[in-house]
Amino acid sequence: MQAADQPLLTTKGLTRRFGGLVAVSNLDFEIRPREILGLIGPNGAGKSTTFNLISGFYKPTAGELFVFGRNCTGKSPLAISRMGLVRTFQHGSLMRSMSVRDNILLGTIHGVGRGARRRERVAETAEMLGLTPYLADEAGTLPHGLQRLVSIGIAFAARPRLLCLDEPLTGLNQTEVANTLTVLQRIRDEFGCSVLLVEHNMKAVMSVCDRIVVLHHGQHLATGTPTEIRANGNVIDAYLGHRHGH
């Protein structure tokens, strides 16, 4: 397999137990170069645990994690992020009392160089996310949708090869959702960055993702294109059936 085609992330038998509870069981999936991959499933399916496992915040009970072809099982979040896998957090990771500019600057601490290079990176990131008019504003004063974009901006400022987003669309109105999805497509198309999207908004996932991985009770239920997932009887039974119209 050529390096260019090598998956950016691969899990093999990834398992995490909390006491007697198996939160994630024997999970195999991969994220490919230049794709937007959705990770979905009903509440309690193990999405957040999986997210924490692949970003190094939880250590697996069993199984292995490969990031950019290297075995990263048990590595720290910092080691994994320095390799180029950067994540956001469900409730945002911005510093509310700091300016938008200084927030995005935080994301450039590693590997961007100094001074002018970092300022350029902040300007480019803000431009791409539509945040240029707000650079001087205190992040905590912005509307919720813009705060979510600032959180993505902090993560993307490092120009990761894989950007992992934890429910970035929560609480956004339709316009903000559409705007954010456009940003994700630009991140992929213009920078060749893959995106992992953990998200409840099914309509958004179906419209933006190249492939979707479905979890149910901590186990892998299905992987496929949005069209395949929509038509998958197991997924409909587990998930889509009782969320019809969402």
UniProtKB/TrEMBL annotation:
Keyword line: ATP-binding, Nucleotide-binding, Transport
Ranges where the ABC transporter domain occurs: 9-242
Keyword ATP-binding assigned: yes
GO cellular component, one term: plasma membrane
Keyword Translocase: no
SUPFAM superfamilies reported in the protein's UniProt record: P-loop containing nucleoside triphosphate hydrolases (SSF52540)
Molecular function terms from GO: ATP binding; ATP hydrolysis activity
Record-linked InterPro entries: AAA+_ATPase, ABC_AA/LPS_Transport, ABC_transporter-like_ATP-bd, BCA_ABC_TP_C, P-loop_NTPase
Protein name: Amino acid/amide ABC transporter ATP-binding protein 1, HAAT family
